[in-house]
Amino acid sequence: MSRKLRALATSILSLKVKMHKYLIIGLGWLGGPLALYFKSAGHTVAGTTRNAEKANLLESKGIHTVLFDLYENNISDLPHALFEDAYVVINIPPGRTNFEPTLFIERIQHIFNYAHQHSAMHICFISSTSVFGELEGQVTNNSPLTPNTASGSAHVELELYLKDLASAYDVAVGADIRRNVLSCSVLRLAGLVGKDRHPINTLSQKSNIALGKNPVNLVHQEDVIQVISAVLRCSQDKENKKGSAMATSSPFENNFYAANFCSVEHPSREQYYTWCAKQKGMRLPEFSPDIRETANGKWIDAESTIKQLGLKLRYPSPYHMLE
Prior knowledge:
Order of helices and strands: HEHEHEEHEEHEEHEHHEHEH
Shape: globular
Number of domains: 1
Mean pLDDT: 89
CATH class: Alpha Beta
Strand order of the largest sheet: 3-2-1-4-5-7-10
CATH architecture: 3-Layer(aba) Sandwich
CATH superfamily: NAD(P)-binding Rossmann-like Domain
Structural class: alpha/beta
């Protein structure tokens, strides 16, 4: 975990906030650092991975880690005690080579249901801006979901399923004392950037790259950890009903919240990736001539998400993300 994230986690701990229990399904490139972030803040953290070596490493750092493969294992193989009173983050990418849409949707839905049945406090599903397909121009949290890929369609189906689960729970409990305990959220992430991960590493080797005028939509790993933490904290505040101001300003509606997340600046692809290559002394990516008078393509507007959750991005511009 980076020094910045460790410092932030320590500052949160110093506020003597209530400690919580977190479960992260998918301790990968994002989930692993997220788990260490919560652990550094003094919380109880568990998670899953397919990699035995990674499991041993995380165990050594205080993260209770269970081997679990979405396609090979049943969700009931996981001890239900992991889910009880936990804030669950589900972060399993569909994969590019072995993606099985029907099975992926079915298995993630099983995780949603299992978490619900075993008294999870919150379910946060990490989705993707691919749910907006080929929408053009400004894309907000309220833009229509118009996927044009198998992965995008799968994420839309899962988002809607989770929303229905949250709404059904809200109605079912009525005036019961546990009302508003379970809540659900969806975070639609733009292209992920962080240590050892940046699109220029592959784009610099390519030629005839189309749509150079289209806007860049990137977000840094550290800001994603920030936003996940903020959403879960918001759900915790909602649960505890801490103060009337928080109760009235909560972004959750019917126990559900869906939001886009991206940096706030969107330079053109050709401009930005050419700059990146020059900064790193790499071969310049070669873009095809883009003769369009007006640049099409979507740009992800996360301003409302940033405002609702009270965030201050560490990497507000893609130009800040190059390491």
